[in-house]
Specification:
By secondary structure, the chain is mostly helical. It has two domains: about 25-115, no CATH class; about 140-360, MetI-like fold (Orthogonal Bundle), CATH 1.10.3720. It is about 75% helix and about 0% strand. It has 13 helices and no strands. Helix 1 runs antiparallel to helix 13 (about 330-360).
């Protein structure tokens, strides 16, 4: 009888935990979505300067149409007043098509809805390498390059820091440990700062590596040669991001390992004669993973923020260089789209951090207070 009663109780407990996990997920997604929405709307207001950019767009539209009419031989014999009326009519048609005749506050919410759906229409000045003026095509073309570069760099930083920090926690006070401590403040400099010196040394003084770009020109037709060229062009930007993060990561995580290595349960495991590798994995690495993941996620967010300058330094054809060029061209749709993509990437990073943290640390409470 007790077993039969325990079964419904266990099933109800699992359902209760599932509801809490779903509630936790929905609340986190809702909070992140609200944050992204506010950030995107502020970007729309700033990028349009409260509507002043639209006034500049109207002036640019009028100038472009007037130049096109003057350059057309079919209108050369047309009287001046008729030609001006023709220009003004085409200008008004373009203004209505772009909805520039509507109040800016109304259009700003339309821009927000379109931006959140990544439906930003056509770029005003820029185009993709294939010639498309669609903003979505431009973003899709640049996004893989950014994910490849930053994904590779962060992958190397994470696993290198884990293994080196574990190694140094066993050799506290050694020469290598003191060197890492001395170099930890060097991580205050951003990745693009190291990138300038790496380009100077390895691309000009010793021309072993290309100074920028993603692939040689013209691009190789063979896939293997193309992949090798991409890897060669990735060495310097990945190295710059690696140098800007590796020493502070090793120093921080080695400190976590040292703190947990002195706990009583670790001493008990050593007294039982457990192998050192098992002690490190089960009793040192596992309990330190939550703060390590938090530290790594914060570092990743910082690297996303520096993407614009770093990609511009290395002429890497990613979202950062795209945003830089869009600002120079005052291409509002592309600027907003770039900000939206970066906001989504940051939100995904934070959300994955929450999920991974809850999986790694059973003390993290979900939803209404349950584990």
């Amino acid at each position: 009888m007790s077993e039969g009663a325990a079964l419904p109780s266990g099933r109800s407990g699992r359902l209760r935990d599932l509801r809490r996990i779903v509630l936790f997920t929905l609340l986190r997604l809702g909070g992140l979505l609200l944050t992204v929405t506010i950030g995107v709307y502020l970007t729309i207001l700033i990028a349009n300067m409260g509507g002043q950019v639209d006034e500049l767009r109207i002036v640019q539209i009028r100038s472009t149409i007037a130049d096109a009419v003057r350059a057309n031989p079919a209108f050369a014999a047309m009287p001046l007043d008729e030609r001006q009326a023709l220009v003004e009519g085409q200008v008004q048609q373009e203004i209505v098509r772009l909805r520039l005749d509507q109040p800016f506050i109304q259009r700003s919410f339309d821009y927000l809805w379109q931006a959140m759906r990544l439906d930003l229409g056509r770029a005003e000045q820029m185009h993709s390498d294939s010639g498309s003026r669609e903003v979505s095509a431009i973003i899709v073309e640049r996004l893989p390059a950014t994910l490849l570069l930053f994904g590779t760099a962060n992958f190397l930083v994470f696993f290198t820091s884990i293994f080196v920090a574990l190694y140094l926690s066993r050799r506290y006070g050694s020469l290598l440990d003191r060197i890492v401590i001395a170099l930890a403040p060097s991580s205050a400099a951003p990745g693009w700062f190291y990138g300038i010196f790496l380009i100077l040394i390895f691309a000009f003084i010793y021309p072993w590596l290309p100074p920028g770009g993603m692939v040689q020109a013209p691009p190789p037709e063979d896939r293997l040669t193309y992949a090798l060229s991409v890897l060669q062009h990735m060495v310097l930007p990945v190295g710059a991001m690696f140098l800007s993060s590796i020493f502070i990561s090793i120093y921080s995580w080695r400190t976590f390992f040292l703190i947990h290595a002195s706990e009583d349960y670790v001493e008990m495991a050593r007294a039982k004669g457990l192998p050192s590798s098992q002690i490190e994995l089960r009793y040192v690495l596992r309990p330190t993973l939550p703060p390590i993941v938090t530290s790594f996620a914060l570092m990743l967010i910082g690297l996303w923020g520096g993407a614009i300058i770093l990609e511009q330094v290395f002429n890497w054809p990613g979202l950062g260089s795209l945003a830089f060029r869009a600002i120079g061209f005052r291409d509002t749709p592309v600027i907003i789209a770039s900000v939206v993509i970066f906001a989504y990437l940051l939100a995904i990073t934070v959300f994955l951090l929450d999920v991974i943290y809850a999986l790694l640390d059973p003390r993290v409470k979900l939803g209404g207070g349950g584990r």
